[in-house]
Amino acid sequence: MRAMNELKKYISASFLIYIDDVILSSENEIEHLNDIEQFLNVISNFGMRLKLEKCEFGLAEIKYLGFFISENGIRPDPKDLECINKIKPPNNLHELRAFLGAVNYFRKFIPSCAKILGPLYELTKDNKFKTSTEWNEEEWNSFNEIKEKLKSPPVLAPPNPKESYIIETDASLKGIGAVLIQNKHPVAYYSRTLKDTEKRYHINELEALAISQALKEFSIYIIGTGTTIIKTDNSPICSILTRKDLTGRLAKFQLSIQAYDIKIIHR
């Protein structure tokens, strides 16, 4: 993985790396042939080899890690989503965790996924599980809403490492979330519920937490793409995170975001 990431310094083409797999994308056929030639020359200089039987070239769409990727964007395999929608209400903790795990795989396609699933995650905590026959309205709404979202998830824009990004963050007592945007199109969504200790945070600390976690989640996209604009609906945090006299949690969050080339603005 480290060696593959080192290739980024020597290749101008647009490509993504996951472990030892590489996706190389181009604007047109001629550019694609040039990109492939450059890529092969660079890895040859690194002493690396590819297995021809595992390579595919010139495809308009590929299926990768359970997702279809094309010039139109990234979308989940409809068959996988159909399987989730066929899952019946869980009647034991194992079934509930299996359902949440299946949904979690597609979380980057679902805005506010953690917020929607919050009532069901509460059931996984100590002595809180109950069968679906005992669910209240909030828990049923959670189960049904997430299934509805998965019936027609948004198509995510393919990331372009040659262009910069915008991240819109949000924080509340129900959780934190963010969306990564490029050219006004969503590239990925992120959300999670709050830990018990985080529920006692001041709202400014929650906003700083959301920014810090979003940058960590989206770092694979934004590093090396110029200044990333962070948009938040919390006006004070824009200036707070630039201060030099911060202490406690805010100082910790400030330190965590200093490694990134960002500008925080109020939306």
From TrEMBL:
A molecular-function term among this protein's GO annotations: RNA-directed DNA polymerase activity
Keywords: Multifunctional enzyme
Protein's UniProt keywords contain Iron: no
Gene3D superfamilies hit by this protein: 3.30.70.270
InterPro entries according to UniProt: DNA/RNA_pol_sf (IPR043502), Retrovirus_Pol_polyprotein (IPR050951), Rev_trsase/Diguanyl_cyclase (IPR043128), RT_dom (IPR000477), RT_RNaseH_2 (IPR041577)
Enzyme Commission number: 2.7.7.49
Stretches assigned to the Reverse transcriptase domain: 1-69
Highest taxon of source: Eukaryota
Name used for this protein in its record: RNA-directed DNA polymerase
Organism: Meloidogyne enterolobii (Root-knot nematode worm)
